[in-house]
Amino acid sequence: MTITVNMSSEMKFKNHSLPEGNNISKSRVKLTDLVTRLNEEKKKERNSNIALSVAAVSAVTVFGIILAI
Questions:
Q1: With bands split at pLDDT 50, 70 and 90, how would you rate the model's confidence at 61?
Q2: Are 33 and 24 in contact (CB under 8 A)?
Q3: In the chain, N or C terminus with fewer CB closer than 10 Å?
Q4: What pLDDT score was predicted for residue 69?
Q5: Residue 5 located in a structural domain
Q6: How does pLDDT run across 3-57, given as a tens digit for each residue?
Q7: Cβ distance 30 to 24 under 8 Å?
Q8: Within a domain: residue 9?
Q9: Neighbouring residues of 30: CB distance < 8 A, sequence distance ≥ 6
């Protein structure tokens, strides 16, 4: 009986697929493409954090107004 344990990073790597329309060679990854993807992810995360912060401040403000009434 053999027990196989997969690490989460292994599963992510096995399930990873290249985006369509992108001409990245399967044998090599271009550093500029990786940096571009990293910057795009940072922008998305920053926008998400800003939206979450605005929602939290709005909720606190509304709660404060309701308490003041």
A1: very high
A2: yes
A3: N
A4: 86
A5: no
A6: 555 555 555 556 656 566 655 556 688 999 999 999 999 999 999 999 999 999 9
A7: yes
A8: no
A9: 24
Say yes or no to pLDDT of 59 above 70.
yes
The domain of 63 spans 28-69
Residue 24's region, left for phi above 0, alpha for psi from -120 to 50, else beta, is: beta
Residue 62 amino acid letter: V
Residue 44 lies inside a defined structural domain of this protein: yes
* Count: domains in the chain: 1
Q: Are 18 and 24 in contact (CB under 8 A)?
A: yes
d(CA 24, CA 8): 24
CB 18 within 8 A of CB 26: yes
